[in-house]
């Protein structure tokens, strides 16, 4: 019999407690403790609840601890204490892994424990294990994905139902997809944490979220959604990491125009999709439910079972700490850009756009207001684009939107 404890009885934790726990290695699994400060008198597991972390830490029978509390504190202190005591930890907490993954993995290595976090990226989609095991023979040149279910749900509602962003967010919150503080979703921080975890695992060095240029979806309007469609695509919030040289990566989270031909363009609602580009395998795309109680819980439980299978032999999962020096400055990143402006004289603005940006692709929307001009530039560095945009937007030209074109 292997005893486990679950810290946190929120959306994911209560989903884990409800899962049929089984083990492929013939060991019986038992939930001995559930840590939560709230009372759950009606739960069938009401006798397992505790408010004291010390009950879990001090109990040598507890070999595996599930952390589904979310946030950094006290999750970080609790997870660190469990790993230091030689208990294996499974977490769905992407904020924790993105902030402290290297340190926690190193403690797990020292105490011969496992620290697994499959559910932290892509909810129920297997992605970390495939990268760490099945695709490990590949030199991965790029990973790009729709990594946040809430924003994908919101953008889908805007694209398909013409719904305003605020209304779609309310709906996502009701469905339990959004973070406690939904700003983490709509401002791109959640997707940033996830692409950092993917990059750290793939390239072997911890990438911290503050090194990553991150832009959310709050500035996206229904008008931009329409222009994306006229261009031949859709707007998606993309987390992307590209290997640009032997030891440098270009990593970004931003809304992007994605062409309809891209495999990521048809990934809608709360679904996530992650494309991994390997030198031997080519493109592999992982698709599934990226948020929600049971999909995420299923990934947590699979990690618990993997821990049971590896109680004596540590699984190889590790990356080194780093100072983020492998990340190229955002200004050196290259992309074509969509620009929408307000101009008193549209013809004059068009000529000025050609003069400043060189070749541009004009986007014509039949019902566009007389003052609106929208176009797509050729690819250039962010530095070059910013300089050109400054030169272009002088006088009576006001920039309303600028969105990256994703070459996916
Ligand atoms: N808020 C997150 C999302 C939950 O919407 O993707 C899953 O990590």
Helicity, as a percent range: 25-40%
Query: What is the residue-mean pLDDT, rounded to a whole number?
Result: 96
Silhouette: elongated
Computed Rg: 23 Å
How far apart, in Å, are the first and last alpha carbons? Answer: 48 Å
Q: What is the oligomeric state here? A: single chain
Strand % is 25-35%
Sheet/helix structural class: alpha/beta
Largest sheet composition: 10 strands, mixed
Which distinct ligands sit in these coordinates? L-homoserine
Q: Please tally the β strands and state the result.
A: 18
Q: Uncertain spans, ≥5 residues at pLDDT below 50?
A: none
Count of individual helical segments: 13
Q: Care to describe what's here?
A:
This protein is of the alpha/beta class and 408 residues long. It is built from 13 helices and 18 strands. α3 (75-84) packs parallel to α4 and α4 (94-110) packs parallel to α9 (189-203).
Notable traits:
six-stranded parallel β-sheet; binds L-homoserine; alpha/beta; 408 residues; elongated; 13 helices
In short:
The chain is of the alpha/beta class. The protein has helices at residues 11-18, 53-57, 75-84, 94-110, 128-134, 149-161, 165-174, 183-186, 189-203, 222-231, 293-309, 346-357, 382-392, and strands at residues 2-7, 29-35, 49-50, 62-67, 88-91, 115-116, 140-146, 213-214, 233-245, 248-259, 271-278, 282-289, 334-335, 337-343, 360-363, 372-377, 380-381, 397-405. 34% of the residues lie in helices and 26% in strands.
């Amino acid at each position: 019999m292997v005893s486990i404890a679950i810290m946190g009885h929120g959306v994911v934790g209560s989903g884990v407690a409800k899962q049929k726990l089984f083990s492929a290695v013939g060991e019986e699994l038992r939930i001995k403790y559930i840590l939560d400060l709230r009372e759950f008198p009606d739960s069938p597991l009401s006798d397992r609840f505790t408010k004291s972390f010390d009950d879990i830490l001090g109990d040598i029978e507890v070999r595996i601890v599930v952390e589904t509390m979310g946030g950094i504190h006290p999750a970080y202190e609790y997870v660190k204490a469990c790993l230091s005591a030689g208990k294996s930890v499974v977490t769905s907490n992407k904020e924790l892994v993105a902030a402290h993954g290297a340190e926690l993995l190193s403690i797990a290595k020292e105490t011969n424990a496992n620290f697994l976090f499959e559910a932290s990226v892509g909810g129920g989609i297997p992605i970390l294990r495939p990268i760490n095991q099945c695709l490990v023979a590949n030199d991965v040149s790029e990973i790009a994905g729709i990594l946040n279910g809430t924003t994908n749900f919101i953008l889908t509602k805007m694209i398909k139902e013409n719904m305003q962003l605020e209304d779609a967010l309310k709906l996502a919150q009701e469905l339990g997809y959004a973070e406690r503080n939904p700003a983490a979703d709509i401002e791109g921080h959640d997707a940033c944490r996830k692409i950092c975890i993917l990059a750290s695992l793939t390239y072997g060095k911890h990438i911290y979220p503050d090194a990553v240029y991150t832009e959310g979806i709050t500035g996206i309007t229904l008008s931009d959604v329409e222009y994306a469609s006229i261009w031949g695509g859709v707007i998606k919030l993309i987390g992307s990491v590209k290997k640009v040289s032997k030891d440098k990566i270009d990593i970004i989270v931003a809304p992007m125009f994605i062409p309809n031909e891209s495999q990521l363009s048809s990934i809608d609602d709360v679904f996530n999709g992650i494309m991994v580009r390997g030198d031997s395998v080519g493109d592999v795309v992982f698709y599934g439910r990226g948020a929600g109680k049971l999909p995420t819980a299923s990934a947590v439980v699979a990690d618990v079972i993997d821990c049971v299978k590896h109680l004596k032999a540590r699984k190889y999962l590790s990356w080194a700490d780093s100072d983020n020096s492998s990340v190229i400055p955002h200004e050196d990143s290259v992309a074509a850009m969509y620009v929408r402006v307000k101009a008193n004289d549209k013809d004059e603005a068009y000529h000025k756009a050609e003069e400043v940006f060189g070749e541009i692709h004009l986007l014509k929307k039949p019902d566009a207001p007389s003052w609106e001009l929208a176009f797509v530039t050729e690819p250039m560095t962010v530095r070059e684009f910013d300089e050109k945009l400054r030169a272009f937007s002088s006088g009576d030209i006001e920039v309303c939107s600028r969105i990256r074109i994703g070459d996916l």
